[in-house]
Amino acid sequence: MTKLKPIVLMTAIAIVFVLVIQFNFQINQSEVALSSSREVANQVQVDLSEEINAQVQTRIDEQSVTIEQLRNQMKSLEGQLAYLVKLMQHSDISDVQQTSQQQSSQVQAISQAEYNALLEQAYLTEAIDPQWSEESVATIEKAFSEINSVAVESIECATTLCKLTASAAVDADPGLLLTQAEQNLQWSGSQNTSFDPSTGKLVSYFLKQGNEFPKFN
Amino acid sequence: MKSKIIFTLALFSSLLSLQLAAYPVNHGGAECSATSSYSDELIKSAGRLLNNSTTRWAYVTCPVPKDEFSDWALTAAIESAWVRVMDRTPLRRVSCSLTALAIDEHGGWHSQTRSDATTDPDAGTHIRTLNFSWVRQASYDQIAQYYVTCSIPPRDPSLGASGIVDYRINQ
After folding, report:
1. Is residue B2 part of a domain?
2. Is B162 inside a domain boundary?
3. Dihedral, A40, A41, A42, A47 alpha carbons, nearest 10
4. By C-alpha distance, which of B76, B111, B104 is closest to A100?
5. What CATH number is given to the structural domain containing B81?
6. A194 in B contact zone (CB under 8 Å)
7. Which of A102, A174, A191 is opposite residue B140, by nearest beta carbon?
8. Over chain A, what is the mean pLDDT?
9. Of A179, A189, A197, the CB nearest to B108
10. Which domain, by its residues, includes B159?
11. Does A112 contact B at CB distance below 8 Å?
12. Quick check: is B9 in a domain?
């Protein structure tokens, strides 16, 4: 019995030793696994962060484009609003309604007064071609001197535009007057004429052939 | 059933007539008439209008029917137009103008006229086309009348009579 005791004790110690070694080994393995898991978790965190950042950036880009489009629409609407306000100042609401529909033809509509102001501005900003100016003044003067219903007050020509100012009889028929002027003058370019019955003034712009008047309805 | 067919046909024909009204048509020169007092020497031949006088110029006015469909759609200008003329003169002197004239309720009026002439003496003695670009109707709140006027030189003894063949206005 006494001989058996050391053997049992040795065996027990050996078993404990083996168990300790095994336990240590498992702890090491667990530490390695834990470390590996941490690395994977870190990697996943980095990947997720990058993906989220990319998605957020894409959203920001998309929103920027939308904001830019909205800004452009706002500018366009502001322009249309300003135009309608301008029209409201010159006409009643029915004109505005009509003109809104006209805008679909892509040619802006302006009043005759505004159109005449454009022609006047174009005339005033032109340099003077002395030869063409002198010849054209003489031609227009001769043609209108033969029309009884018109008293010429001034004729001036620049480079491509001439302006005639005259007094005309309020009851003069515009069709006959224009036809008579056309037959006498034989002007090869375009003409734009307005008559204001409140002043009795007739204003004509004569455009040299090959040039265009401003394009507005 | 019958009423449905009639209704469909009526609707179709209405739409067709609207569609047709939107397309420009050619007007014969014979639709033009003398602007000046004499017209004895103007002859109408095969839809054309010719000046048969050997001494006098003819001044003619050609009507341009307003396209009601365009009025409804508020198209406020002539987009383009042409007049085909027979210019049998050595100097090619037939000229035409297209005018938009608007008269307002106060007696004021506005007009815009475009002119073109056959200026090329080497162009031959047959049909020439005079082209007109965009013409303003005057103010957008006024209804304009459109018309074409032409000056036709006297008949050339050897080349023949000049005149208007036809014209088209694209509104």
Report:
1. no
2. yes
3. 90
4. B76
5. 2.60.120
6. yes
7. A102
8. 80
9. A197
10. 26-170
11. yes
12. no
Asked if pLDDT for residue A87 goes beyond 90, the answer is no
**CB-facing half-sphere around the CA of B111: CA atoms within 13 A:** 27
Instruction: Report domain extents, chain A.
Output: 1-109, 112-207
Residues A8-55 pLDDT 10s: 888 888 888 888 888 888 888 888 888 888 888 888 888 888 888 888
| Tokens 């037939």 belong to residue | B94
Region B112-130: mean pLDDT is 74
Closest to B171 in 3D by CA, of B18, B61, B24? B24
- Give every CB contact of residue A18 below 8 A, 6+ residues apart in sequence: none
The ipTM, to two decimals, is: 0.73
pLDDT tens per residue, range B109-120: 888 888 887 666
Average confidence score pLDDT of chain B: 78
- CATH 3.30.1360 applies to domain A112-207: yes
Chain A interface mutation, best of B140, B141, B171, highest count of A Cβ atoms under 10 Å: B140
